[in-house]
Design goal:
By secondary structure, the chain is α/β, with parallel strands linked by helices. It contains 11 helices and 9 strands.
Length: 292
């Protein structure tokens, strides 16, 4: 006999997900996915534990649970997530925005206050999470989003429109800062690929098997993209401008050397909540360009 009540359906989903890659998230994931299916909030669920699902809804929920059991991230299943208090659409063409990246947004907002109408370029924009968050909080900024993937740019455009900032943004396809060569900016921001290839096997199944590898991996030491991005950022920054980049675990000293070698000064690192260096920041003091 099929089970139709929400309470019993949740109990069975939790038991199923306990055999999945993250059993510790079974309760949270089963509830989140059911609420997504029903387009309801948790308060409604608590008030209606004996509500019945239709057979169609039950079939859909069982399929959703099977997808989660295989390791597919709940954000891709739902097609959306939240970042910096804003709603974002996400697809397998873009990385899922992480809370750690909010440290980059916070520091960029602080530094942008030094300029009247800051020109900001987000390199490897993906879902547009960084760029859209900055556009939302910096009303006078003009923001350019660049990504090598046209599919990612389509998602970023949708998120800009969804959050009402598309009129102050532009979206360009290309590699790193190539599409804006010859222009100048006050801020260059980026969450580039920085995972070493050697770490591939140690990643969770959600990341390794579902998120786009081109946005994750960057050579043997994870610094390949920084080696190209940092000197390119120096060349497009106006004097007094800043580059801000998310970095990986134990990459601070390598990134510091690359920043200093390209002429950046006032180099600093912003830690995450675990005290790990998460954001690298450098300032262009000199007016003379570095060509590499």
């Amino acid at each position: 006999m099929r089970i139709y009540t929400l309470r019993n359906h949740l109990e069975h989903a939790v038991e199923a997900l306990k055999d999945g890659p993250h059993p510790e998230k079974a309760d949270r994931d089963s509830e989140f996915l059911l609420l997504h299916l029903l387009r309801k909030n948790r308060a409604w669920l608590i008030a209606h534990p004996r509500k019945e699902l239709s057979e169609e809804q039950q079939d859909l929920y069982e399929e959703i649970i099977r997808r989660r059991l295989s390791g597919e991230p709940v954000q891709y299943i739902a097609g959306e997530t939240e970042f910096y208090g804003l709603p974002f659409r996400v697809t397998p063409d873009v990385l899922i925005p992480r809370p750690e990246t909010e440290h980059l947004v916070e520091r960029a907002i602080q530094l942008a206050a030094e300029f009247t109408q800051p020109r900001i370029v987000d390199v490897g924009t993906g879902s547009g999470a960084i760029a859209v968050a900055l556009a939302t909080h910096l009303q006078d900024a003009r923001i350019t989003s660049i990504d090598v993937s046209e599919k990612a740019l389509a998602v970023a455009r949708e998120n800009a429109e969804r959050n009402g900032v598309s009129e102050r943004m532009r979206f360009l396809a290309g590699d790193l800062l190539g599409p804006v060569a010859g222009e100048q900016f006050e801020l260059v921001v980026s969450n580039p690929p920085y995972v070493p290839e050697a770490d591939r096997a140690s990643l969770s199944v959600e990341v390794r098997d579902y998120e786009p590898g081109v946005a994750l991996f960057a050579g043997e030491d994870g610094l390949d993209v920084y080696r190209r991005l940092i000197p390119a950022a120096y060349n497009v920054l106006a004097p007094g401008g800043y580059v801000l980049m998310e970095i990986g675990y134990r990459q601070a000293e390598g990134v510091r050397a690359l920043l200093a070698g390209s002429g950046f000064e006032a180099i600093q690192f912003i830690p995450d909540l675990q005290g790990i260096a998460r954001v690298a920041c450098g300032k262009r003091e000199s007016a003379a360009p570095v060509v590499k």
